C-alpha cells in the first residue's frame, strides 16, 4: 500500500476540495473581507496557542494589500500550532509530538520544518520556547529508539502500520526509511534553538548519546567496507517505495560520501549518494563541531565532527560537480562514486534549490547559481510548465504535478523582486479556493491536488510571507 492509499483508507482526501474537520471554517475576527473568513479552527479546538504568533499574524496582515494573500497567510502560518501539536511535560521535561498533518505520525524532518518558521519569535513567547525544547527532547527519544527510522508514533509501544515491511519496524516506529536528512534536521533544530536562546539545558546525556549515534550512523553509511546493517523491502506497486537489489540499493564506490536509501520525499534514491542530503550532513556536522566545542566542551568529538564534514565536502567537490553544456559547473542530484550522475531536483528540503535556504553561504556560490538556473530550465525533467503555474515537481507525485513547496523555495532563494512576485501570484492562483497549500497540484488544474492537510507546506508559506515582510515589504503593498 502506498502512502496516498493509506491516507484515503483513513478517510482523508488526497485530492479534491475537501478539508479536514480539524481545519474547518471558523471566524477568528481577523479577516479583512467577508469573502475571506478565517479557515482556522475555533480557538478552543487549536492544539497550541502563542500570543507572539497571534500578534505577528495581526501585524503582518495589516501590511498585505492583497486580501486573498493576507487570508492565505492567516490560515497557513499558524497551521502547525493550530492542528498538529501534542505538548506535555514528561519526567520533568517538556515533550512535544508534532504530526505531519493527515498522517498520525511524526517525521523528524517535517516536525523540525514545521516549527522552524516560529524560531524568530522564540524569545518573545515562553510557550514557543518550551514547544521547541520539547520537540528536541522528543526527537532525541526517537533517534535513540531507531536512528534509521524517519517517522514515529507518540506511543513508542504502538505497532507500525507498515509492519509488513522487511525488516518489520519495531514498536513505536511508523516507518523505517533511511534518509540522511532525518538526522540532520534534529541537529539543525538543536543548534538553531541554542543560537536563538542561549539555553543549554537541552544538551543533556540523552542528547549527547543521540548526537554520537547520529555521527556513528553517518559514518557507517559511508560504507567504506562495502557493508551496512540497513536494508528496506516493501510489497508495493510503487517502484520508488523501496531500494532495488533486495532492499540494498544500487552499487556504490566508497568515496567519502554518505548513502541515503531514500530522498526527503520518502522515495527510494536512484544513485545512493544523494547530494543535497550530503551537503546538509556536512552543514550539520559543522554545527555539531560548534556545539561540542563551545557548549559541551568536548574537543575530541568536536574535532571528529569537523574532520568528517571536511571529508564529505571534499567528496562533493570531487564527485558531485560537473560541467553542463549550457550552464557551466553545477551540482548533480545523485551520484554513485563510479562517475554516474543524475541531474534533476525534487521539490522537498533538502533539495538543490533549497541549499541557499539551508545555508546563506550558497547565495554567493557560483556553482549553486548555475545549478539554480539549470533547475528552472527545460533541461530539468522535473521542472514543469502548465496553464496554471510552473514549478518544481517530484517523482513522488508523478510527471504532471507541481509542488507549492517548490514554488515557495524558489521565492525563498530568489534575489529578484519580479521572480518573487511571480511566485506569489502562482501560489495565490493554485490553492483551489481552500485557503491552504497542498503537497502537489496538477500543472493545468489546481483543483486536482494531493493532501488537504499538509502542515509543513502551510507553515513554510507563512515563513515566506514573514521573510518578504522583513526583507522586501514593498512587495506586499501590491495586489496580485
From TrEMBL:
GO molecular function, one term: hydrolase activity
Protein name: Glycoside hydrolase family 125 protein
UniProt cross-references to SUPFAM superfamilies, sorted A to Z: Six-hairpin glycosidases
Keywords, ordered alphabetically: Hydrolase
UniProt keyword Metal-binding, yes or no: no
PANTHER family referenced in this protein's UniProt entry, alphabetically: MEIOTICALLY UP-REGULATED GENE 157 PROTEIN
Pfam families per record: Glyco_hydro_125
Keyword flag RNA-binding: no
Amino acid at each position: 500500500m502506498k502512502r496516498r492509499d493509506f491516507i484515503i483508507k483513513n478517510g482523508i482526501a488526497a485530492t479534491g476540495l475537501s478539508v479536514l474537520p480539524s481545519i474547518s471554517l471558523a471566524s477568528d475576527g481577523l479577516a479583512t473581507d467577508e469573502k475571506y473568513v478565517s479557515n482556522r479552527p475555533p480557538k478552543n479546538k487549536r492544539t497550541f496557542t502563542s500570543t507572539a504568533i497571534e500578534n505577528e499574524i495581526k501585524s503582518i496582515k495589516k501590511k498585505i494589500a492583497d486580501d486573498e494573500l493576507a487570508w492565505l497567510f492567516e490560515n497557513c502560518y499558524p497551521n502547525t500550532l493550530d492542528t498538529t501539536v501534542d505538548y506535555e511535560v514528561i519526567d520533568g521535561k517538556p515533550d512535544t509530538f508534532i504530526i505531519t498533518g493527515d498522517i498520525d505520525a511524526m517525521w523528524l524532518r517535517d516536525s523540525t520544518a514545521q516549527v522552524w518558521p516560529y524560531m524568530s519569535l522564540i524569545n518573545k513567547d515562553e510557550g514557543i520556547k518550551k514547544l521547541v525544547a520539547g520537540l528536541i527532547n522528543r526527537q532525541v527519544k526517537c533517534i535513540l529508539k531507531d536512528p534509521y527510522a524517519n517517522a514515529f508514533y507518540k506511543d513508542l509501544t504502538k505497532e507500525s502500520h507498515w509492519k509488513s515491511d522487511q525488516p518489520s519496524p519495531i514498536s513505536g516506529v511508523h516507518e523505517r526509511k533511511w534518509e540522511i536528512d532525518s538526522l540532520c534536521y534534529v541537529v539543525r533544530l538543536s543548534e538553531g534553538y541554542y543560537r536563538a536562546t542561549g539555553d543549554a539545558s537541552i544538551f543533556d546525556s540523552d542528547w549527547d548519546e543521540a548526537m554520537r549515534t547520529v555521527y556513528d550512523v553517518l559514518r557507517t553509511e559511508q560504507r567504506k567496507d562495502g557493508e551496512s546493517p540497513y536494508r528496506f523491502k516493501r510489497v508495493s506497486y510503487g517502484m520508488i517505495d523501496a531500494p532495488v537489489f533486495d532492499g540494498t540499493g544500487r552499487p556504490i564506490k566508497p568515496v567519502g560520501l554518505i548513502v541515503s536509501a531514500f530522498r526527503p520525499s520518502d522515495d527510494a534514491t536512484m544513485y545512493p549518494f544523494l547530494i543535497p542530503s550530503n551537503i546538509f550532513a556536512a552543514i550539520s556536522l559543522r554545527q555539531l563541531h560548534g556545539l561540542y566545542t563551545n557548549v559541551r566542551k568536548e574537543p575530541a568529538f568536536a574535532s571528529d565532527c569537523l574532520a568528517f564534514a571536511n571529508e564529505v565536502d571534499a567528496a562533493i567537490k570531487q564527485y558531485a560537480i560537473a560541467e553542463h553544456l549550457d550552464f557551466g559547473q553545477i551540482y548533480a542530484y545523485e551520484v554513485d562514486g563510479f562517475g554516474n550522475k543524475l541531474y534533476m531536483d525534487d521539490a522537498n528540503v533538502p533539495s538543490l534549490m533549497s541549499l541557499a535556504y539551508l545555508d546563506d553561504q550558497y547565495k554567493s556560490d557560483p556553482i549553486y547559481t548555475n545549478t539554480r538556473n539549470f533547475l528552472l530550465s527545460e533541461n530539468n525533467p522535473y521542472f514543469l510548465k502548465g496553464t496554471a503555474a510552473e514549478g518544481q515537481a517530484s517523482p513522488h507525485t508523478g510527471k504532471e504535478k507541481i509542488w507549492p513547496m517548490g514554488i515557495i523555495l524558489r521565492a525563498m532563494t530568489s534575489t529578484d523582486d519580479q521572480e518573487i512576485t511571480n511566485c506569489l501570484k502562482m501560489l495565490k492562483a493554485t490553492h483551489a479556493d481552500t485557503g491552504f497549500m497542498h503537497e502537489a497540484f496538477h500543472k493545468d488544474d489546481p483543483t486536482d491536488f494531493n493532501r488537504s492537510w499538509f502542515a509543513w507546506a502551510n507553515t513554510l508559506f507563512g515563513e515566506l510571507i514573514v521573510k518578504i515582510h522583513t526583507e522586501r515589504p514593498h512587495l506586499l503593498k501590491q495586489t496580485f
